[in-house]
């Protein structure tokens, strides 16, 4: 199922152009049109799924296996020194296209990419409390 208003669905359908790296019946892998670094790649399921809260676990598993394979190829091909794997969910988290997609961002010395945050001040007890709360939900 696709959404006509979704830019990624339009790319997947071929209605919009993209630099395609790989495609199979389930996923499309393209070069990010506005890359943070050389080789910045996006992996998206062909089925329109908004975010991590909606994607099926088995689909996510296959997507991440593909991400691992492509990351190794990016490292080998582009000689990057590291890799950020980034996936945003919801506008508060920086998601700008409401179609699940995973960013593979090759990293190079002095590349000017900055993915940082200010650490929260927590105690061991705080961590244990949250761990137990999450654990009970599993």
TrEMBL record:
GO terms for molecular function: catalytic activity. Transmembrane segments: none annotated. Gene3D superfamilies: HIT-like. GO terms for biological process: nucleotide metabolic process. The active site is at residue 101. SUPFAM superfamilies: HIT-like. A motif (Histidine triad motif) lies at residues 99-103. Residues 7-114 form the HIT domain. PANTHER family: ADENOSINE 5'-MONOPHOSPHORAMIDASE HNT1, HIT FAMILY PROTEIN 1. This is Histidine triad (HIT) family protein. It comes from Natranaerovirga hydrolytica.
């Amino acid at each position: 199922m696709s959404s006509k208003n979704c830019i990624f669905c339009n790319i997947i359908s071929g209605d919009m152009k993209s630099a395609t790296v790989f495609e199979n019946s389930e996923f499309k892998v393209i070069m990010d049109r506005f890359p943070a670094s050389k080789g910045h790649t996006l992996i998206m399921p062909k089925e329109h799924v908004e975010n991590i809260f909606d994607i099926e676990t088995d689909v996510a598993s296959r997507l991440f296996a593909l991400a691992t394979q492509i990351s190794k190829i990016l490292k080998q091909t582009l000689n990057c020194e590291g890799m950020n794997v980034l996936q945003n969910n919801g506008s508060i988290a920086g998601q700008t296209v409401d179609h699940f997609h995973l960013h593979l961002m090759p990293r190079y010395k002095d590349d000017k990419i900055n993915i940082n945050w200010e650490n929260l001040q927590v105690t061991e007890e705080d961590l244990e409390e949250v761990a137990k709360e999450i654990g009970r939900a599993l």
